[in-house]
Amino acid sequence: PGTGPLYTTDGHKLWATQLEETLQTYDADIVLFESCCHYPGGPAGSPLYVNDQGVTVQPGTELMYTEIAKANTELVNIARAHGASPYWIKLPPTTAGSIIYGPDIAERVDRFNLLLDQLDAPILDWGAAVLAQPNVASLRHPDGIHYTDAGNAFVARWTFNQTVRVLAPTP
Residue 1 falls within a domain, yes or no? Predict the structure, then answer.
């Protein structure tokens, strides 16, 4: 599914319902989660999240990060309930001057990554993997956050080697 935590429609938690629907359709062994970068009400223009206590969660607040941490845990639990191994992707820091998702994007990526350390799930550190490459500039898009085609190919291979190849039975 392609939504982030705290996105809702008609009172339904999209991050949870889309994952449930996907895992009911596909018998996944592994679920990869990438947590980035905008929040409802931001560039996407969708409504702000209202938590279980009826409080509207404003962008960039401590409450936003608290609610995202809860949603992250919910996603891990859903994946495990369907027999899949959840993995979270830790993103590389944004490059200097990146403002594609607003002026606080660098801090937001850092905070999202810190939330992952609280989860009971393995972390795949794309940041460390990408930044260790001698050709790192060719892997990152000029917007400072996305990958180039070469970067996408690199993280796909690297992720495969860290997950599927490790979990696959030996012939």
Answer: no
Is residue 162 within 8 Å of 126, Cβ to Cβ?
no
Using CA atoms, how far residue 69 sits from 63, 113, 170, in Å, is 10, 11, 36
Neighbours of 19 (CB within 10 A): 23
CATH number, domain of 36, equals 3.40.50.1110
Query: Which token pair is 169?
Result: 């039975």
The span from the CA of 38 to the CA of 77, in Å, is: 23
pTM for the full predicted model: 0.85
- Residue 63 has a pLDDT of 95
77 located within any domain = yes
12 pLDDT above the threshold of 60: yes
**159: nearest Cα among 167, 169, 149, 148:** 167
Where in the sequence is the domain holding 125, given as residue range(s)?
8-167
Distance CA 155, CA 138 (A): 13
User: Is 103's pLDDT higher than 70?
Assistant: yes
Domain membership of residue 121 (yes or no) is yes
2: in domain: no
Torsion of CA 156, 42, 39, 101, to 10 degrees: 40
Ramachandran angles phi, psi of 23, nearest 5°: -75, -20
Contacts of 162 (CB under 8 A, 6+ apart): 124
